[in-house]
Amino acid sequence: MFYWVVKAILGPILYLVWRPRAHGTRNVPRHGPAILAGNHLSFADHFFGPLPLPRKVTFLAKAEYFTGTGLKGLLSRLFFSGVGQVPIDRTGGRASEAALRTGLRVLAEGRLLGIYPEGTRVPDGRLYRGKTGVARLALESRAPVIPMAMINTFELMPAGRPLPKLRPRPEVRFGEPLDFSRYYGMAHDRVVLRAVTDEIMYAIMRLSGQEYVDRYAADVKDDAAPGPAAGRATADELTRAEEQGAERASNTSKG
């Protein structure tokens, strides 16, 4: 209920002040499970992406939004919980497997699941390599994948800015549903997971017009961060942990 209250209050303000554009909304199913897979340019994506859709979008949100302290942490926790966001642990391994199960539960309930395959906000407006969790969700749930491209939100609300600028106008584009039925039953094949993920990222790239970088955004951020990188898990390591978790789950179910 709080989701619709927030949308009813914020929606008119967002339309009046920023005049956002939307294209391809008819590509998003009005009923049943579906995965919205989008690029992640800015915190503003959480608002302008779902805005033109008549359905509630449940995003898998990083757990840090729910664990902050003080007044800011409380407000963040109340807001993200109220709009139906689901906290996930992004540290890899068993945590990634739990996040996957959470996403599958949302889809099993016939809901619209939002996910950012890049795993983090990008550092420079380009499109980065996707992590394979989105492919596992698509193949295990058998839900259609709708590519979603955010436009201009990187410039509108750069990282660290508390409020968006008034320009440029934000835009969201929804592509035609992607069908991966040819891969059903192969959700634990690493090569298939990478192929499906790359196809999703290519569809997003065509919608957004972004330059593609064949690296994980988290790795690029780590390279740019001050201080030694020792002890920090890279996105490659996290993805390997996810894949190893998938293999363990597969072997357990077979046993």
Would you mind describing this structure in some detail?
- With 255 residues, the protein is an alpha/beta fold.
- The protein has helices at 2-18, 45-48, 64-67, 70-82, 94-108, 133-141, 153-156, 190-208, 217-224, 235-254, and strands at residues 21-23, 34-38, 57-62, 86-88, 112-115, 127-128, 145-151, 171-174, 212-213.
- A seven-stranded mixed beta sheet has the order 1-8-7-2-5-3-4. A two-stranded parallel ribbon has the order 6-9.
- Helix 5 runs parallel beside helix 6.
- The chain is globular.
- It starts with a helix and ends with a helix.
- Mean pLDDT is 85; it is low at 229-238 and 249-255.
Please outline what is shown here.
This protein has helices at residues 2-18, 45-48, 64-67, 70-82, 94-108, 133-141, 153-156, 190-208, 217-224, 235-254; strands spanning 21-23, 34-38, 57-62, 86-88, 112-115, 127-128, 145-151, 171-174, 212-213. The chain is α/β, with parallel strands linked by helices. The model is unreliable at 229-238 and 249-255 (pLDDT under 50).
